[in-house]
């Protein structure tokens, strides 16, 4: 079982290929995107769907952000007005700036670039309503993925490997 620690994984050892961050109002859109990507064999985390009851939402969010190769942020009228969504976008952006090898893809849903916070306008966005959305998202992810094309599980430590050799 892979656990997500508080330390940042190296670029070659992400738990998730992607994570999707969104306002609960946009759950159906997030579900469609997540299912499409998982059908392509990618490992992902969808914010409101994969949360585990009884865990800290704050801790989970920071751990998932650190463990994701790509953050897909759904920007809609609802999410742009929601303080929690704004905070998660800021954390993702901070992580992208601090960690080489991680990316953030803003997905616009019925919003114009002028409505999006200035700090996000420098990122190339995707328009969910565009007929080429799916192809462009898959191409964007393909360009970011390592040659193997999948998130790699965190390798066991040398101590764990040594224990397994001793118990054989």
From TrEMBL:
Coiled coil, from the record: none
One Pfam family from the record: TIR_2
Entry superkingdom: Eukaryota
One GO-annotated biological process of the protein: signal transduction
TIR domain location: 14-141
InterPro entries registered for this protein in UniProt: TIR_dom, Toll_tir_struct_dom_sf
Compositional bias of kind Polar residues: 158-168
Region (Disordered): 149-168
Protein name listed in UniProt: Breast cancer anti-estrogen resistance protein 3
Annotated organism of origin: Platysternon megacephalum (big-headed turtle)
């Amino acid at each position: 079982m892979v656990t997500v620690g508080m330390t940042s994984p190296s670029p070659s050892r992400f738990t998730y290929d992607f994570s999707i961050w969104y306002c609960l109002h946009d759950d159906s859109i997030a579900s469609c995107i997540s299912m499409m990507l998982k059908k392509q064999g990618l490992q992902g985390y969808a914010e409101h769907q994969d949360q585990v009851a009884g865990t800290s939402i704050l801790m989970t969010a920071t751990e998932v952000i650190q463990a994701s190769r790509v953050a897909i942020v759904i920007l809609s009228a609802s999410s742009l007005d929601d303080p929690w969504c704004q905070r998660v976008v800021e954390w993702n952006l901070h992580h992208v700036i601090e960690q080489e090898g991680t990316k953030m893809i803003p997905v616009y849903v019925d919003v114009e670039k002028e409505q999006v916070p200035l700090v996000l306008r420098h990122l190339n966005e995707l328009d969910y309503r565009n007929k080429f959305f799916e192809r462009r998202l898959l191409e964007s992810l393909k360009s970011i993925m390592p040659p193997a094309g999948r998130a790699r599980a965190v390798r066991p430590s040398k101590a764990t490997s040594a224990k397994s050799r001793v118990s054989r």
